[in-house]
């Protein structure tokens, strides 16, 4: 059992009375009959406290989310104990809001699904601790959820997508390409060898002090870069996409980040401004960075499609590429991927932006998928632990590299 009592918080210690009072606050609806199974999903793996109730057919009955973005923007990044404290302060309210909006009383739930891996240890702990108390009081099955699997399967909530399909997950914490063969059957084709693209965009935005830019002050780093890039000229800077000689599906962003950092320093000297002031060339840098990242991501994804086609791993008549994660809401990157899917006769699908970023719906939906498939439903939660690090599926990235597929050059006219 997890005891998270370093800092005081509503659920810092498992307390039966707290949970009892919480459950009593719901109006019960005797006589109301739900025809479908109902899953409550809880997400706290990073910096969003989120919950949702989803039924077996994919109807979202209620949802709530508390984003910590504004706090972390001010401190220049996520400080895990701060994230943990904010999760503690908000989890009860968020779960309550999601349940109330759904008009489902806790006793009517079929199961509770919660992200337990991968993510920030302190953040995962809050969601798990809260969920285990709820499960214990309600005597409901518990479904542990893999955060990246949940991102990958979200598309099946919004679109009719059959297995297998290819998924590209690009966010602040993750960057991977995987083949999805079933609810819990994944083949990992490639991943970032260092940082994720969202992390890099956040760092560049911070280095450019975009938080001080009147149009970008409340935006995440990636969104600020996308916004500013529209006003810039990508041809003013020539950053080379990383790993051009490596014929695999892995990614890398920290070398490029270093080059950009040096370029910004040089520009500050040229323009005679201090670190912390906004460069007149910030928009051009944003445009060039976004273009270079888009080309890198597109090239690796192109190779993954060709690998899957070569090995007959995707549906012959309708190969599908799903793109999700926070960075997938970037329309420029989506355009680059569209050029790739057009050239390879694939269908490109993206969940709507609010389902691309972290949310409770994707966790509840993953619970529904698991419930329907009869996979990973626990009736005893003894010994259950969160796992900050956890790979996605079986790693075949070495085999992908050994295939050394040459990717034809595409004109990236975006
Ligand atoms: O999936 P997400 O909400 O959280 C995780 O990282 O798991 O993704 C957040 C990341 C941040 O790095 C943010 O800068 C990036 O997604 N992001 C974007 C855009 N909107 C959010 N990156 C590029 N373009 C955007 N429009
Ligand atoms: Zn995520």
From TrEMBL:
<dbReference type="InterPro" id="IPR043129">
    <property type="entry name" value="ATPase_NBD"/>
</dbReference>
<dbReference type="InterPro" id="IPR022450">
    <property type="entry name" value="TsaD"/>
</dbReference>
<keyword id="KW-0808">Transferase</keyword>
<feature type="domain" description="Gcp-like">
    <location>
        <begin position="59"/>
        <end position="365"/>
    </location>
</feature>
<dbReference type="GO" id="GO:0002949">
    <property type="term" value="P:tRNA threonylcarbamoyladenosine modification"/>
</dbReference>
<keyword id="KW-0012">Acyltransferase</keyword>
<dbReference type="Pfam" id="PF00814">
    <property type="entry name" value="TsaD"/>
</dbReference>
<keyword id="KW-0819">tRNA processing</keyword>
<comment type="similarity">
    <text>Belongs to the KAE1 / TsaD family.</text>
</comment>
<dbReference type="GO" id="GO:0061711">
    <property type="term" value="F:tRNA N(6)-L-threonylcarbamoyladenine synthase activity"/>
</dbReference>
<dbReference type="InterPro" id="IPR017861">
    <property type="entry name" value="KAE1/TsaD"/>
</dbReference>
<comment type="function">
    <text>Required for the formation of a threonylcarbamoyl group on adenosine at position 37 (t(6)A37) in mitochondrial tRNAs that read codons beginning with adenine. Probably involved in the transfer of the threonylcarbamoyl moiety of threonylcarbamoyl-AMP (TC-AMP) to the N6 group of A37. Involved in mitochondrial genome maintenance.</text>
</comment>
<keyword id="KW-0479">Metal-binding</keyword>
<dbReference type="GO" id="GO:0046872">
    <property type="term" value="F:metal ion binding"/>
</dbReference>
<protein>
    <recommendedName>
        <fullName>N(6)-L-threonylcarbamoyladenine synthase</fullName>
        <ecNumber>2.3.1.234</ecNumber>
    </recommendedName>
</protein>
<keyword id="KW-0496">Mitochondrion</keyword>
<keyword id="KW-0809">Transit peptide</keyword>
<dbReference type="GO" id="GO:0005739">
    <property type="term" value="C:mitochondrion"/>
</dbReference>
<dbReference type="InterPro" id="IPR000905">
    <property type="entry name" value="Gcp-like_dom"/>
</dbReference>
């Amino acid at each position: 059992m997890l005891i998270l009592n370093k800092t005081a918080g509503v659920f810092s210690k498992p307390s039966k009375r707290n949970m009892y009072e919480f459950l009593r606050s719901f109006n019960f609806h005797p006589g109301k009959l739900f025809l479908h199974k109902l899953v409550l999903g809880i997400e706290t793996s990073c910096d969003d406290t989120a919950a949702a109730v989803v039924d077996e057919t994919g109807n979202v009955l209620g949802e709530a989310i508390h984003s910590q973005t504004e706090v972390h923007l001010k401190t220049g990044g996520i400080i895990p104990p701060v994230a943990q404290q904010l999760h503690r302060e908000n989890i009860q309210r968020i779960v309550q809001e999601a349940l109330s909006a759904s008009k489902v009383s806790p006793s009517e739930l079929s199961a509770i699904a919660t992200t337990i891996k991968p993510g920030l240890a302190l953040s995962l702990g809050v969601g798990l601790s809260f969920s285990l108390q709820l499960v214990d009081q309600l005597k409901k099955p518990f479904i542990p959820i893999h955060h990246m699997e949940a991102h990958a399967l979200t598309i099946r909530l919004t679109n009719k997508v059959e297995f297998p399909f290819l998924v590209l997950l690009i966010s602040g914490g993750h960057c991977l390409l995987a083949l999805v063969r079933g609810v819990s059957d994944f083949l990992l084709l490639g991943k970032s060898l260092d940082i994720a693209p969202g992390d890099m965009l956040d760092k560049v935005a911070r280095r450019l002090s975009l938080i001080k830019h009147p149009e970008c002050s409340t935006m995440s780093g990636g969104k600020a870069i996308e916004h500013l890039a529209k006003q810039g000229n990508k041809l003013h800077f020539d950053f080379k996409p990383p790993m051009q000689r490596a014929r695999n599906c892995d990614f890398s962003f920290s070398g490029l980040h270093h080059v950009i950092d040096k370029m910004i320093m040089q520009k500050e000297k040229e323009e005679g401004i201090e670190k912390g002031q906004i460069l007149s060339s910030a928009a051009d840098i944003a445009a060039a960075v976004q273009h270079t990242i888009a080309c890198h991501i597109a090239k690796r994804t192109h190779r993954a499609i060709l690998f899957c086609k070569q090995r007959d791993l995707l549906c012959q008549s309708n190969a599908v590429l799903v793109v999700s994660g926070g960075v997938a809401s970037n329309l420029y990157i989506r355009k680059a991927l569209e050029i790739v899917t057009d050239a390879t006769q694939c269908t490109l699908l993206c969940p709507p932006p609010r389902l691309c970023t972290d949310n409770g719906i994707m966790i509840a939906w993953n619970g529904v998928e698991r419930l329907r498939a009869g996979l990973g439903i626990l009736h005893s939660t003894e010994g259950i632990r969160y796992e900050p690090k956890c790979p996605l599926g079986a790693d075949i990235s070495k085999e992908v590299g050994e295939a050394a597929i040459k990717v034809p050059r595409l004109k990236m006219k975006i």
